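Pipeline run #58 for the internal structure catalog. This entry was flagged by the ingest filter as a single-chain record with no existing model, so it goes straight to prediction. Upstream metadata was stripped on purpose; only the residue string is passed forward. Reviewer on rotation: M.T. Logging verbosity set to normal.
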Amino acid sequence: MRGVILAATVVFGLALTSGCRKAGPPPAGERPLPSGPRAGAGGSLTVWDWLSADPSQGVGHWLIDVDKAFEKAHPGVRVNHVAQSHTEYYQILKAAEAAAGEAGGPDVVMIHQGSRVLDHKASLVPLDRYLKPELRKAIVGWELTSEGLSADGTPYAVPVAVQGNAWYYNKSILTKAGVDPEAPPATWDEFLAVCDKVKASGVAPIACGEKEGDWADWFLNSSSFLELSADEAAKLQRGEMAWTDPKVAALFTRLEQLGKRGMFQEGFLSTPLFPDAGEVFMRGEAAFCLGLLSDVAHWKEFGEILGEGNLGVMPCPGTGMIPVGGGFAYGITSWSQQPDLAFEYITLIVSDANANEFLKQAGSFPANQNFDPRLIADPNAKIIASWLAEKRVAAPLTGKIPTEVVESIKREGQRILSGQTDVPGALKAIEATAARTKAGRAK
């Protein structure tokens, strides 16, 4: 299995607290790294994430098991695991950064791989001195957690999961609509035709949660291969191709097309992506769901409700490809008084044994490639693994785009789907944001 996800990675690699002060913390590299237990903290280690809210199942259960194992291996140390809101996570993290740990704050933070790592690197400990060759070799995704989004750059977080998007479908709904579920749509036009049949049968074609704008982001990542070559996508990411380019416009027009044809369930604009959109799909109220490869809203979660035999998975019609990039990672805060202990915790999370547990309990593809491939038994997980092995993957379009531009994409996606703007107007706004962001970072 090392070759399976590593092959995918080669492709996509080319690819709170009060008392805040106005000035943020100085860069981590300009402050000495403390070590040893935090004074007065009773040997506690505080960990923040957005996935441990439900410790009874999935990633939450796995993380709590990791906490217990760490405490057992470190007598006297207590892991204080704090589940933050996914929607507000980075606002909460920024508040902690502004306080520079004065009010306690976290020692270890979960963070999305990609631009988010660079956004927060001033508050993360550079990990060069901690990483051993065997750990670097076992784990994929370093290019998404390192300076310059390059595997040769200084790493600021350790990758935990391999993530991406795929289209899931309910075979029973397709059958009732007169569609062969064993022959899902292979082209964009076929997909639209199938959606029309599903809609005519009285069921929403696509489960969508666009309240935060994230679904549009996922859609653009999933369908970008329809319009953009890998070179063109890279140029767009680097700011060398305009967002108003006709090829980009054609991509956004496909998003607009879905909205105008009424392909989503009623109320999709006010529906959160997590967990509501997935629940719409699992209740049998929509035929298709654009979901994830790991963690949540994925083959394991959907299959447990709909049944493995009733769930299908496919790439974006017309592409034969799926976007695969980094999932979540863990970093050490620059204000932590016990960075050595914090790194030991992260090392346990990404160990070979926990990579296996991550796959078994959460149904997630681990960044640590030393997991047992025999654990992939689910038929849809096997299909996804085969795509990875066949290199039918590429980097997500928005994975290396500055966060400010991604937020603009989300806003304009919402406006397109709500009819508040058209594609030219949306792309003009995104281009303006990209220009401002580029100019601001050049200073």
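catalog note: Residues 1-42 have pLDDT under 50 and may be disordered.
catalog note: The two ends are 44 Å apart (CA to CA).
status: ready for reviewer M.T.
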